[in-house]
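Researcher: We plan to redesign the surface later, but first we want a full-length starting point. Tokens attached.
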């Protein structure tokens, strides 16, 4: 086989969809042709990037956008019609999906927020924000400062006394499959407010403040400086938003 023939079927070779005779011919050619070997490596790297993008738990939107666009520009395959197959069509569809994702990232600059995250933090707030549930919570000042530094890159535990909340307690909660630092503060009536903090993850991609009602609670969220912040309270949306902004200002 020559280079032109190998380039027509190299994707079929990668997906093990060639007959044994053609597979052997491609292998022999690759052993003696640096150019086609380099092309094979490029396609293999493309496949690895597709799998990594599909399974990544967290990503930076800007870096992801640039990476996707670069790979599409550099390695977009040009299949020849006579060798067109389901494997090539699948690969083209995957690239098209990445192109659409990149376009959405460019247009909106963020990934969609899942309703599951909001529902989960509201449920966790309801489960933990009562005095009788705080016996096993962390409350030592040094421990709280260490935890907020670890989960939120903050120098000190957020001070919410200006909003009438004090006496912070902390728990490490798994919410929607991810660990959060759950800070719980109480007002003078024993009413609880929850502050959820974690390193940024892809299921919460709001750089601008977002507020909604969830199970009777106001949930305010935003991502800033690589940290996700969610505030859950029984207050109205305006006050809950102000608390979220005050916490984010400390990031």
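Model: Full-length starting sequence:
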């Amino acid at each position: 086989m020559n280079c032109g023939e190998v380039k027509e079927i190299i994707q079929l070779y990668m997906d093990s969809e060639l007959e044994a005779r053609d597979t052997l011919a491609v292998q022999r050619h690759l052993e003696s042709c640096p150019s086609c070997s380099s092309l094979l490596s490029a396609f293999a790297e493309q496949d690895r990037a597709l799998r990594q993008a599909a399974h990544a738990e967290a990503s930076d939107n800007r870096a992801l956008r640039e990476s996707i666009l670069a790979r599409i520009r550099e390695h977009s395959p040009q299949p020849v019609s006579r060798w067109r197959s389901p494997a090539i069509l699948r690969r083209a569809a995957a690239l098209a999906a990445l192109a659409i994702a990149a376009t959405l990232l460019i247009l909106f600059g963020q990934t969609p927020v899942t309703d599951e995250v909001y529902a989960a933090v509201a449920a966790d707030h309801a489960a933990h924000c009562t005095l009788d549930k705080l016996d096993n919570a962390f409350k030592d000042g040094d421990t709280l400062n260490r935890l907020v530094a670890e989960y939120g890159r903050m120098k000190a535990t957020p001070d919410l006394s200006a909003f009438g909340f004090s006496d912070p307690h902390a728990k490490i909660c798994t919410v929607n499959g991810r660990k959060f630092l759950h800070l719980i503060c109480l007002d003078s009536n024993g009413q609880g407010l929850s502050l959820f903090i974690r390193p940024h993850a892809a299921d919460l991609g709001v750089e601008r403040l977002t507020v909604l009602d969830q199970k009777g609670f106001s949930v305010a969220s935003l991502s800033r400086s690589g940290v996700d912040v969610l505030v859950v309270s029984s207050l109205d949306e305006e006050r809950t938003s102000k608390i979220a902004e005050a916490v984010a200002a400390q990031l």
